[in-house]
Amino acid sequence: LITGKYYASQDTQPTRKQLHEGTAGLLIEAISVNCAYNTMIVEPKKPNEQIYQLGNKTECALLGFVQAIDGSYAEIRRKYPEESLFKVYTFNSSRKSMMTVIRLLENGIDVGFRVYQKGAAEIVLARCKYFIGSDGQAHPFNEQTRAELIATVVTNM
């Protein structure tokens, strides 16, 4: 689900041009810093070799999506080295999610934090207060929208 639209398969995923530029940037950053830094996609060294996924396969799929929308997770990780991340809450079975907190800087001045979360849909949806619409803007995420998402997307997963 991206900007209110459900993409049922890899074949229907949006291209970079179909996403608001700000939304694409947030997705690329979120996935890049909120996947384990030892998870990566290794490009083949010889012709006709396949790419090699190193680490968690779900996270590799997310990193593959970053590449599919013309993003570079390696570039984002250079911008936010692992040791610079403010806090990482690794996935565990009780939390059913992973969160990464980064510092937000404007002109070198610390202006706050951004928290990226991924995990079980019911856990993530329960914490949502806003969503990014197709216009790239934050919109309130209410109980009606949450219930509709659970009924139309989560139960069909």
From TrEMBL:
Keyword DNA damage: no
UniProt record, GO biological process: regulation of cytosolic calcium ion concentration
GO molecular function: nucleotide binding; P-type calcium transporter activity
Name of the protein this chain belongs to: Uncharacterized protein
Keywords: Magnesium
SUPFAM superfamilies per the UniProt record, alphabetical: Metal cation-transporting ATPase, ATP-binding domain N
Domain of life, source organism: Eukaryota
Keyword Magnesium: yes
Any one Gene Ontology cellular component term annotated for this protein: plasma membrane
InterPro entries, A to Z: ATPase_P-typ_cyto_dom_N
